[in-house]
Amino acid sequence: MPPASIRRxxxxxxxxxxxxxxxxxxxxxxxxxxxxxxxxxxxxxRSPEGPVAVIVSLPDQLTHVYRNGIRIGVSTCSTGRPGxxxxxxxxxILQKQVDHHSNIYDGAEMADMQRLTWTGIALHVGGLPGYPxxxxxxxxxxxxxxxxxxxxRVGTVVIIADATSAPVEIVHPGLLLSxxxxxxxxxxLQAKAGQKxxxxxxAAPAGPLAILxxxxxxxxxxQLGGDxxxxxxxxxADPATPLGEHVLVLAGAGxxxxxxxAFRHGQEAGGPPEPRPEQIMARVQVDEAGxxxxxxxxxxxxxxxxxxxxxxxxxxxxxxxxxxxx
Length: 326
What we know:
Oligomer: single chain
Strand content: 25-35%
Largest sheet: 8 strands, mixed
Radius of gyration: 20 Å
């Protein structure tokens, strides 16, 4: 294989000239409705800037890439085979290496490795037979993986789900706030709207910010870089109505309030319809200490996650930075 620097230069040249990779590396196509194994569609011009979110759909064996709430790419993938199931949940990228070899599976090549857990789950280049075949990782075509690697960073959110939906954009005049606190937090958002998520070794912010809200526990937890920095009681209006399984990514702020990209995941087939994200935002409030912690750490790309299940220790892992598992 050519050195990583040569591969990266070739990628940039191909992206600039519109060169389409051959089938062995992955094949770019215009029609993304009927993708064959190894094929992908990539249109970064649809949304040149903004927070990136990756959604892996296990039933469809597809990986979707959204930037600022707009889908810019979709690719076939291969996830864990029977006995090596790919875990579902909400993850953040912990580590990136262009050239990586597995320390679990006899030094197997894992090009463009983007680590999701310290126990061996990652996005990387791999085989694509058209069905789940990996040891738990998410295999991607090389040409697509190169492009994805170029736009993600440590802290980018990756949702692996049994059911997914396209994101919706909502604007809400506060973040789990009482009306008295909204102006103060909006000021923080205005000041920090351009702040980026950290890269490895960055001094600040300390890491991905995740705000978890459980209707079962009537409790919230604020994690920063995998560590719990605040927790407390949460007040939920109409508590008999489920919140649903949602992930909201903070895209920025404007005069009308915070802009969020909302993703739904984990909805059971045939289950009751889940409420819209803006309805959830209007129903949930945290206490004054929680609001102060949010204001202190808030930055673009922060996550708000709702669940109707308890926030038990087995659903969270500080060392792995698994935000929440399904």
